[in-house]
Amino acid sequence: MILEVKDAVKKFGGILALNKMSISMDSAEILGLVGPNGAGKTTLINCISGYYKLDSGVIRFMDKSITNLPAHVISRLGIARTYQIPRPNPDITVLDNVMIGALFSQDQRNIRDAYVVAEGLVKLVGLSSKRESLAKNLTLVEKKFLDLARALSTNPKLLMIDELIAGLNPVEAEQAINLIKKIRYDYDLAIIFIEHVMSAVMRLSDRVIVMHEGKKIAEGAATDITRDEKVVEVYLGRGYTHA
Amino acid sequence: MKSSIYSWILALGCIVLLVAIIPFSSGYIQTFIFNTLMFLILAASWNIFSGYSGYVSLGHVTFFGVGAYVAAFLITKAGLAPPISIIIGGLAASALAASIGGVVLRLRGAYFSIATFGLNEVFKTIAVNIQKAEGTLGIVVPPIPSRALSCYIALIIALITVLTTFFMERSRIGYALISIRADEKVAEGLGVNTFKYKLIAYAIGSFFPGLLGGLFAWHAAYIDPHSVFTPFYSFYSMIFSIFGGVGTVLGPVIGTTILSIFQELLWARLSYLYLLIYGAAVAVIILYMPKGLLGAVKYVSSTLLSKKVR
Amino acid sequence: MLLDIIQVLLFGLTIGAIYALVAVGLNLIFGVMNVLNVAHGDIAMLGAYLTYWFLVLFNVNPLISLPLIIAIFIPLGAAIYMLLIRKIIHISSSVEEIIFSSLIVFFGLSTFIESSALLAWKADFRSIIYFEGMINLGGILLSEKTFIALLVALIGVFSFEVFLTRTYIGKAIRAISQNRVAAILMGIPVDRINMLSFGIGISLAGVGGVLLALIYPIYPALGVTWTMRGLAVCILGGLGSFTGALTGAFVMGIVESFGSYFIGTAWRDVICYLMLLLVLVLKPSGMFGKGV
User: Fold this and answer.
1) With CB atoms 3.0 to 4.6 Å apart as the test, which of A56, A147, C214, C251 could cross-link to A86 if both were Cys?
2) Is pLDDT of A242 > 50?
3) Taking the domains of chain B in order of start, what are their residue ranges?
């Protein structure tokens, strides 16, 4: 058992963002998380990573309860995430950005070791040529990859990616998809993968969960999901872009 | 964040120069040097926590006053030698920061600032009550033997403060603080125990004003609540750092040196008006130069140097 | 004993009412513009000193000074708004930035005002000697000055409440406090209302300062003390809430009065600060507030 979320409830004022949402992951798979805007996908990730606290429900990671633990503790236990709108540290270099996770998620790392790890990750995501650039000078795509590198710097066992492909041109999207495949095989990670670009979801996911209004409305293989009546109804004629 | 070898040589040169001229300077110059070093320590120590973490402390002077009072008491009541009293004063200030920080550092942004602002008022009141209990307006302390000695000790404290900033910037604490300043929640998501590092930096940053307070008590030979708990010093700490560039090692140094000289020139002609100008100057700095002098210089040099087309 | 308690209570109400004036002004400025006026108490202190000098130099009854102070402070507020606040709002890309920048800039203004006061008037205590009689309300002795301060403060708070709820400008102010974007879209001249609000806000502080000066001796450093009171009251009641500022003020006034009675006046500031800390730690949004 890697991750188990049971009956998660999260309210924001009058809005019920998560309505007894449950998911479980038993192996290092890629789980696609789809659904219309406002379905609660990002909220779910926020709750799992400790960014938000649940109002009720239980989250277990590697057989340990992590419900309402502080975010930095959850990060050390091995959960990392990227952000829908990338949030790197704008005034420091790409390399320094990646070092932060490396320095803090694993207590023992000194600056030298963290530097080595950071360099490796910067190379992995293809930003080596920009390693000394300030993060604020990167393009959006580069910032997304930086975000990914930062998430990986914490040496996670579960990586949650929030809309990486959306907004990328076909060439970049292909790069991103290949990168995720590579990460999955090199690091043997479990990945939760929020995405709107259906073709990417189809290609990458072992399994897909569809959310709507804070609840799970369908679950299964990617190809089955797209034929599911409820899912089609919820998307109502929403097509998918080709990568 | 890397300084060239030239700035190191320059810095070393200035220090050697100072050390050399202090004993031969007039009382006026010595007082000027002492005051400048005092502001430098206040600004640089404020910068250690507030400059790097982005949590603006408006009560920095609290630790100066606490250090002053603890040292003064130890000297006059317990008969301890001044140097030891000063060090204990610094440690007391740090301990206070660590304990009050436990509460105050859980507050966000503006609330934190307000809490630090009020903290000073509290300790001022406590000092006033102590004085009332003693039946005196202030504490008289046996004076330091020579002003040159004050300058040397101040120079040593200033050096230690700046060096601490230098090493902290490159350490885990530095990385933690910078990540906190950029986005605290994201930092936590990356495994940074933000509370712990804020507390450590806050305690370290409060040690130096504590030391300085004790030295001030010895140097001035008299302290009273209103002079050592004056919000003006909190203001100076902040504005000198911001002017020179927060979040850098040399920013406070440059800012303090320039403004101190400027202030001295003004005072000689316009007595007291400099504070008025300072108040107005904050507006200018915040509104037109948020990164301070160093930031402005970097901006100009980077624009001039990089002719690349994006 | 009962008489004592009632006296302390009345005094607490008076102080509370004056704090209400100061706090309501601070709250108004924050609610409308998201500016934390850390110089609010210093402006109150200015009002107090002006009244003192009007009395000493021109023999003006402090009550007559009140409309004078208001007449001076509204344009003064407009000037501060145009010079400082507009620019702060212009360069800030988020509400947090406005709050943060205003903290620092107004801290500078506070230093500016306090040092000017020290320069002009020195640090000695000054007292306003006027209304020195005593009033007897069925066995309860109240000093004339406390009584007048209480009356004026209550009138002031009440008039402001009427202003907020019954006048067009008052409604515009409330609209902006609730939702600035909507207010702009509705055609409310936000910039002009901001300017007016700041002027009114500091006038309230000025009046509060005058009333405090009737009761206590004044000196320049009091500005900061009063600012802390105002901030503590607003945070206790909830930043952004008018009811909150009112309630918080009276709570603070009464706690302070009783605290002074039992523990002694020396620890007033500490009590106030501890209350502030308690609120910030337990419920930062205060009793009624929407929070920072």
Assistant:
1) A147
2) no
3) 29-290
The answer to whether the CB atoms of A90 and B179 lie below 8 A apart is no
Q: For residues C151 and C211, is the Cβ–Cβ distance under 8 A?
A: no
Q: pLDDT tens across A144-156, in order?
A: 999 999 999 999 9
Residue B299: per-residue pLDDT? 61
Q: Which among C83, C107, C277 has the least Cβ separation from residue B58?
A: C107
Domain with CATH 3.40.50.300 in chain A: 1-78+157-243
Ranges of chain B with pLDDT below 70: 1-5, 7, 266-276, 278-279, 282-283, 286-310
| Topology classification of domain B29-290 | ABC transporter involved in vitamin B12 uptake, BtuC (1.10.3470)
Q: Do the Cβ atoms of A104 and B182 come within 8 Å? A: no
Residues of chain A contacting residue B179, judged by C-beta atoms under 8 Å apart: 89, 100
DSSP state of B309: -
Any B CB within 8 A of A78 CB: no
The pair of structure tokens assigned to C89 is 């709002």
CB contact under 8 A, B188 and A91: no
**Residue C257 placed within a domain:** yes
Segments forming the whole domain that contains residue C260: 2-282
In Å, how far is C159's CA from the nearest CA of chain B? 30
ipTM confidence: 0.87
Contact C284 B118 (CB under 8 A): no
Closest CA–CA distance from residue B179 to any residue of chain A (Å): 7
Instruction: Give the number of domains in chain C.
Output: 1
Task: Please judge whether A100 and B179 are an interchain contact, meaning their C-beta atoms are less than 8 angstroms apart.
Answer: yes
* pTM score, whole prediction: 0.87
Do A103 and B172 lie within an 8 Å CB cutoff? yes
Instruction: Identify the CATH assignment for A1-78+157-243 out of 3.20.20.70, 3.40.50.2000, 3.40.120.10, 3.40.50.300.
Output: 3.40.50.300
